[in-house]
């Protein structure tokens, strides 16, 4: 599967979310990494080659998700072509 454009991945700092983010990048996507731990997201972003966009968000918090949803779209990202949902355990 070839993915053109941006793809968002929840829980991308570890586990299955990290693995999916890396696979999306391998398939050509520019990945938006979301999760609770910025340092883990940055480490995954470095594995991808530094082109990933990072958003710290806790999907268990309505306030956190609401803030992300209300934020203006980053011009560098633009619309996503794919979104995968995966919430990894602590």
Protein model, in words:
The structure is a single chain. The chain is an alpha/beta fold and 90 residues long. It has three helices and four strands. It has helices at 15-26, 38-48, 62-70; strands spanning 6-9, 30-35, 53-56, 80-84.
Kindly list the characteristics that best describe this protein:
90 residues; alpha/beta; 3 helices; globular; disordered C terminus
The total count of helices amounts to 3
Q: Could you tell me the mean pLDDT? A: 80
**Mass-distribution shape:** globular
Give the number of domains. Answer: 1
* Largest beta-sheet details: 4 strands, parallel
What oligomeric state is this? single chain
- CATH homologous superfamily, by name? NAD(P)-binding Rossmann-like Domain
Low-confidence stretches: 80-90
What's the alpha carbon Rg, rounded to whole Å?
A: 12 Å
Which fold name corresponds to the CATH topology? Rossmann fold
The level 1 CATH classification is Alpha Beta
Distance linking N and C termini: 30 Å
Helix content: 25-40%
Structural class: alpha/beta
Strand content: 15-25%
Strand order of the largest sheet: 3-2-1-4
**What's the CATH architecture name?**
3-Layer(aba) Sandwich
Query: What's the count of strands?
Result: 4
Which sequence of SSEs, written as H and E, runs from N to C? EHEHEHE
């Amino acid at each position: 599967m070839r993915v053109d454009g941006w793809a968002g991945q929840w829980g991308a700092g570890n586990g299955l979310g990290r693995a999916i983010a890396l696979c999306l990048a391998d398939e050509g996507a520019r990945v938006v990494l979301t999760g609770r731990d910025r340092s883990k997201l940055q480490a995954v972003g470095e594995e991808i080659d530094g082109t990933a966009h990072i958003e710290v968000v806790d999907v268990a918090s309505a306030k956190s998700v609401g803030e992300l949803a209300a934020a203006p779209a980053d011009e560098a990202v633009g619309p996503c072509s794919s979104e995968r949902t995966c919430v990894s355990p602590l």
